[in-house]
Amino acid sequence: MTKITPQPGIMEIALYQGGAAHVEGVANVVKLSSNENPFGPSPAAIAAVRDSAAGLHRYPSTDHSGLRRAIGEVTGLDPERIICGVGSDEIISFLCQAYAGPGDEVLYTEHGFSMYRISALAVGATPVVVPEQDRVVDVDAILAAANPNTRLVFIANPANPTGTMIGAAEVARLAAGLPEETLLVLDGAYAEYVEGFDAGAALVGTRDNVFMTRTFSKIYGLGGLRVGWGYGPQEIIDVLNRVRGPFNLSNTALAAAEAAIRDQDYVEKCRAENARWRAWLAEALAECGVASDTSCANFILARFSDAAEADACDEHLKSQGLIVRKVAGYGLPQALRITIGDEDSCRRVAAAVRAFKGAAA
Ligand code: PMP
């Protein structure tokens, strides 16, 4: 038995489950479990990946100025107030490393994204889980739970795995009502799926206790390259850059992300296609008695009558080559999270759920 012991809190972190892309003995498998873009990245990003090969012997940019400039040009945000990370996961982790430690509280809501808890425990902070209201972030519950020991509040808007979101006025009310010592982090991983949504960027621009995170893993289709970014008050960006490793992003990742964000026509097409098939799938599921909340993201949280039915449907989908996500770990054992794939995948999911419900009836 080793005498080398981890820091307190580390063993409370559950090992990450998921990510499988194969089902033993089943052909034509489609992975709908990680909210990836079924169309992949923009062709411009793929070309940038190829071009980056010529410079692989060189260390990458340490300040990510090219990517930050591109983000600034496309979004209108100040590149000086942007930081890039290995997925938005890394930005979440930087925030916890820099602002939370033993005795501090990191707050998120009942069905909040798993990295908030992982990053809080990794730095010895105390994760605090606040109830939601019917799977929607409850601003009053957060305000009631926050106190001067609350260093960080994370909310994803739209949220994963529920797909629900709260409006700008509610977000502003939350920012205004938190203790002065608390940073509100608005996780905009799915923001691009909401037409015309700024993910709270305007609020970050006017307040010094609000921070926004974004990712290239979802609508930009670059999950495999791991690029995310954050936008916040200048002092906070300065702090986070001190914990960031100097070469955290590769040449290839930087080049691909820069090309991807400049191709907004492609983003628009993906957003429209997602909206179309999300509505179609929600209706198809409803027709066979499977309810879902209105999703603002690229997945649907399908609710079954109980955990046993959700598990049985998951098994049936798997047998048909459809890998979806069980979300019992998020406190939703009766639900399955289904990524919106392309038309063919959505039709396959609907047919499989219909057959499952028909067989069960
Ligand atoms: N936030 C939310 C709400 C997410 O669902 C995800 C990915 N599942 C992330 C952040 C992290 O994404 P990435 O690290 O790939 O940017």
Automatic annotation (TrEMBL):
Gene3D superfamilies reported for this sequence: Aspartate Aminotransferase, domain 1, Type I PLP-dependent aspartate aminotransferase-like (Major domain)
Output the superkingdom of the source species. Bacteria
Catalysed reactions, as listed in the record: L-histidinol phosphate + 2-oxoglutarate = 3-(imidazol-4-yl)-2-oxopropyl phosphate + L-glutamate
Domain Aminotransferase class I/classII large: where?
Answer: 28-352
Under Enzyme Commission nomenclature, its number is 2.6.1.9
Q: Which InterPro entries match?
A: Aminotransferase_I/II_large, HisP_aminotrans, HistidinolP_aminotransfase, PyrdxlP-dep_Trfase, PyrdxlP-dep_Trfase_major, PyrdxlP-dep_Trfase_small
Involved pathway(s)? Amino-acid biosynthesis; L-histidine biosynthesis; L-histidine from 5-phospho-alpha-D-ribose 1-diphosphate: step 7/9
As cofactor, the record names: pyridoxal 5'-phosphate
Pfam families reported in the protein's UniProt record: Aminotran_1_2
- Residues with the modification N6-(pyridoxal phosphate)lysine, per the entry, are K218
A single GO molecular-function term is:
histidinol-phosphate transaminase activity
Keyword annotations for this protein? Amino-acid biosynthesis, Aminotransferase, Histidine biosynthesis, Pyridoxal phosphate, Transferase
Q: Does Amino-acid biosynthesis show up as a keyword for this record?
A: yes
Its quaternary organisation is: Homodimer.
Into which family does the record put it? Belongs to the class-II pyridoxal-phosphate-dependent aminotransferase family. Histidinol-phosphate aminotransferase subfamily.
| Protein name as it appears in the record | Histidinol-phosphate aminotransferase
Q: Please tell me the species this chain comes from.
A: Pseudodonghicola flavimaris
Gene this chain is encoded by = hisC
